[in-house]
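Please go through this chain and its backbone structure tokens and walk me through the local backbone shapes. Keep your notes short.
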Amino acid sequence: MTTPPQTTVGAIRDGSWQRYLTFSLSTWVTIGLLIVVTALNVALQPTFFTTYSLTSNFATFAPLVFAAVAQAVVVIGGGLDLSIGSIVALASVVALTVMDGEPSRVAIGVLAAIVTGVIAGAINGFIVGVIRLQPLIATFATNSVFAGAALVVLPKPGGMVPSTMTTGYRSLVIGIPVSVLIVVLAIVLYWLLSRTRLMRHIRAVGGDRSAAFASLVPVVRVQMASYIVAGAFAGLAALAILANTGSGDPFVGSSMALDSIAAVVLGGIALAGGRGSGIGAVAGAIILAMVSTVLSFMGVPTTWRQLASGVIIVAAIALSVVMSRKDQR
């Protein structure tokens, strides 16, 4: 007697649907997407590679780049962080309040943003790693907490970022825009992190938590550390936003969590964890940002841009599933 094929309901019950989370875009697909959107930008914006355009574009890219790296660290570790946007907003308004427009307080403002991100990440890490609450539920809850805290610190948009910070962000160093160097900094920081034992442990936990535990990897501490590192990168994203906008906004990170997840997917990182690279997430963030630029130059109304970006992301994910199925066959 043959065994009847498993129904969809049965697949959901035994958890086999989770195999779809292991699908990821190949490096070549990510590179191809990056080349395509760059070519479209150049076609629609012939001045794309001028110093002014690079400065302006990368100034816009940088916050999402740091947020994408933050999300990548957590996802590679087998988690997820829906509170990234709120952490960015909270860190930005705390730094803004600390600096209070004074150039002499920029250094302490930078420290305040990073420390705020680290504390928020530690809270997430404690809830996920120690209390063992599901990352999706835990960070969905803390998202509201951090967003509320941002409103307490700065009830409405306003304030002024020190002029040295905003002018420096759009200046040149040896002919290279600072905003470009900041994106390069995000890549370098992740590369340095990837060379550490911590990142190897994060990848091991994301790949197989039980096997990592059996190999004497301190799983709980590693999970906490992944959220703490993500919080630090979120703090850097907050500083990039402040430098780009010149003022504070407690609502600034409203779409950043989902955008960072989209960037992670476009960068070839498997949502199941254990696979991928933060450098891929940087590429994914740039792709996502340039798609928005292309839609803007094509005259697509603002109300339709998010829909169009979502369709592109769904198409990319569908492509990854098709390619993974072919590989399995």
User: Anything to note?
Assistant: The radius of gyration is 20 Å. The longest helix spans residues 219-245.
